[in-house]
């Protein structure tokens, strides 16, 4: 799947389930679309304001694309190990100490994802009582990004914990250079 799908990184393949590759691919495309639409709507907003014909609804569009782009990007970054936990220290460790800290790091991230899911759902439910201006849409449509991101972060963290315990957390570069030890 990775060869046919260049958006999905082969890095850390031993920590990923191939079944989730289409999800990562779709999330990357969606994130790119959201951030591109954010940039475009910001440009249009500036142009319309400078010409004296401001479109107030563009601020809603801009903030919506920004919020969804950031939260979708956070979920993808979790799967790609691009942020949310420090790996520099654990890469220097070996054996059971490394395994403990790798699982601990990912468990903390998973806890954060689950917290985002639980409290995001609560926030989503209360958002039906607040409305955005000028569209009068409930704030819930913005808040929905939080539990969706939390569910994906938790899923991708669980994926890495399970596969790391099965296959070891050592990545391909470490195995080639001889750094670290097989777990």
Topology:
Layout: H1 21-50, H2 57-79, H3 88-91, H4 95-126, H5 140-143, H6 145-167, H7 172-177
Helix pairs in contact: 1-2, 2-6, 4-6
Largest sheet: none
Total helical elements: 7
Uncertain runs: 175-183
Q: Determine the strand fraction and express it as a percent band.
A: under 5%
Question: What general outline do the C-alpha atoms trace?
Answer: elongated
Description:
The structure is a single chain. This protein has seven helices and no strands. It is elongated, with a radius of gyration of 20 Å. The model is unreliable at about 175-183 (pLDDT under 50). Helix 1 packs antiparallel against helix 2 (about 55-80), helix 2 (about 55-80) packs parallel to helix 6 and helix 4 packs antiparallel against helix 6. With about 180 residues, the chain is mainly alpha-helical. It has one domain. Helices cover about 65% and strands about 0% of the residues.
Task: Offer a concise description of the structure.
This protein is mainly alpha-helical. It has helices at residues 21-50, 57-79, 88-91, 95-126, 140-143, 145-167, 172-177.
Key descriptive features of the protein:
mainly alpha, elongated, 7 helices, 183 residues, 67% helix, disordered C terminus
């Amino acid at each position: 799947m990775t060869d046919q799908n260049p958006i999905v990184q082969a890095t850390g393949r031993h920590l990923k389930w191939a079944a989730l590759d289409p999800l990562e691919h779709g999330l990357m495309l969606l994130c790119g679309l959201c951030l591109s639409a954010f940039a475009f709507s910001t440009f249009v907003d500036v142009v319309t304001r400078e010409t004296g014909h401001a479109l107030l609804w563009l601020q809603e569009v801009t903030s919506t694309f920004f919020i969804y782009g950031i939260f979708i990007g956070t979920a993808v970054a979790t799967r790609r190990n691009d942020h949310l936990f420090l790996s520099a220290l654990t890469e220097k460790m070996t054996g059971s100490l490394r395994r403990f800290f790798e699982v601990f790091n990912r468990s903390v991230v998973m806890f954060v994802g689950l917290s985002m899911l639980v409290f995001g759902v609560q926030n989503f439910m209360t958002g039906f009582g607040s409305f955005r201006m000028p569209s009068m849409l409930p704030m819930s449509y913005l808040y929905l990004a939080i539990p969706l991101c939390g569910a994906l972060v938790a899923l991708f963290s669980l994926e890495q914990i399970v596969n790391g315990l099965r296959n070891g957390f050592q990545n391909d570069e470490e195995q080639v250079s001889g750094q670290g030890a097989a777990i």
